[in-house]
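Researcher: Please translate sequence to structure tokens.
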Amino acid sequence: MLEKIFKLKANNTSVKKELLAGFTTFVTMAYIIFVNPQMMAISGMDQGASFVATCVAASVACIFMGVYANWPIGLAPGMGLNAFFTFTVVGELGYSWEIALGAVFLAGILFVVMSITNLRKWMLESIPLNLRIAMGCGVGLFVGFIGLKSGGLIVSNEATFLSLGNFAQIETLLSALGFLIISVLAVRKVPGAIILGVLIITFTGIIIGLIEFNGLVSIPPSIAPTFLKMDILGALDVAMISIIFSFLFVNLFDTAGTLLGVANRANLVNKNGEIIDIDKALKADSSSSVIGTFFGCSPVTSYVESSAGVEAGGRTGLTSIVVGLLFLFAMFLSPLASIIPPYATAGALIYVAILMLSGMEKLNWSSTAELLPALVIIVMIPLTFSIADGIALGFLTYVFLKIFNGEYKDIASGAWFLTLIFISKFIFL
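Model: Translation complete:
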């Protein structure tokens, strides 16, 4: 039966390999079940419900990807987008988390529409590659900034705005140690380096008396506080347009980049160089973002950590299904999730941020007209503490340079459309 559904022999794999690959992928991305609820709780969500929502949304998304697209991809609420959700949309702009979920839902619907029409191709081709890469890198710096702040590694300073934290405080020291542990484990290619680092720091906190141990396993908390709580009507506001597009763009380009990378690693490419069932994978990913809002999650997206499972032999959707089932089992770890402190996850955020910056090597450094807008995006996302503002400033810089360089004909229709939206945002909102 499994052979018929997943075509294991045709993909040069076996049930044993797929099981191992699924476990490997889950271990590498399991940190999200601890990090995401913590971040969502800052927005006002119930942390226990958010923990269950993270596990359930990730499980449904992974199983759907495996059954529908037959791809070895793990999905879960995306890093960076959850930070944007909490710290910008809710924290800075003052929207309720219910309205923010509504914005995620609308962005997900747009993503689905783009996935089933030619709009996806139009949008991807309209935005220069440099700007697409810059979005991911800028989000990485945004995540890293949050990690440094939550771990006490950087603190506010009246004279200089920011300064180095106080390492005489044990929490700050543990944050730095967590990053170093994760880095050492990753360099030594230890599977699950991130989650291991988070757990080591947590158990260290328990040993020295900073954390009260409440057990490891229990019945999952109720999901009722977040289930079907998105406020779609509240998100249908002119002021939310740039927010919705920011959710959409970051998710779209992150997904496209991840799927392309995993496809090449998993040999999901036919003789003509075409990626097998890429449309199905995109539809599964975009649908997952919509489904995730029902449970109370920021955008669900494909994880680049899936490449670890591919390296372990994963080639089919059976890998994804295994990841999904493990996320379901993880729901019973709520006592552990509830005691993990911010200084334990800070190292994970910083490490993930640095990995996201690796895309900078793909920038076209020879074209100043496209390089400068990309660098504006990368720098301004963390400095404005807003993904939306950073992207907007980068786009406006790109169009400005193209116009005054006499290259306005090179600006695609989609880029003009987005520019008008961003100009309207700064003038009227």
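Researcher: Any highlights?
Model: The first strand starts at residue 75 and ends at 77.
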